[in-house]
């Protein structure tokens, strides 16, 4: 099952944003490029919460 074009674009967008925030791995140590869209969205939420603290 291949990912839709919009999913791929969103993943790329999130990876870019996270790297600008200095995040290169998920909280469990996986590379951003290796995880699902859901995990990227959650990692982004966590990074944004840390940024405002």
Describe it for me?
With 53 residues, the chain is mainly α. The protein has two helices and no strands. The protein has helices at 5-20, 37-52. Helix 1 (5-20) runs parallel beside helix 2 (37-52). The radius of gyration is 11 Å and the shape is globular.
Q: Which H/E pattern describes the elements?
A: HH
N- and C-termini, Cα separation: 39 Å
Q: Give the radius of gyration.
A: 11 Å
Main β-sheet: number of strands, strand sense, barrel status? Answer: none
Shape: globular
Class computed from helices, strands and strand pairing? mainly alpha
Work out the oligomeric state of the chains in this entry. Answer: single chain
Average pLDDT for all residues: 94
SS strand fraction: under 5%
């Amino acid at each position: 099952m291949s990912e839709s074009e919009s999913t791929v674009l969103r993943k790329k967008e999130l990876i870019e944003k996270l790297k600008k925030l200095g995040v290169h791995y998920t909280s469990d140590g996986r590379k951003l490029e290796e995880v699902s869209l859901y995990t990227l969205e959650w990692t982004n939420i966590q990074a944004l919460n840390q940024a405002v603290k």
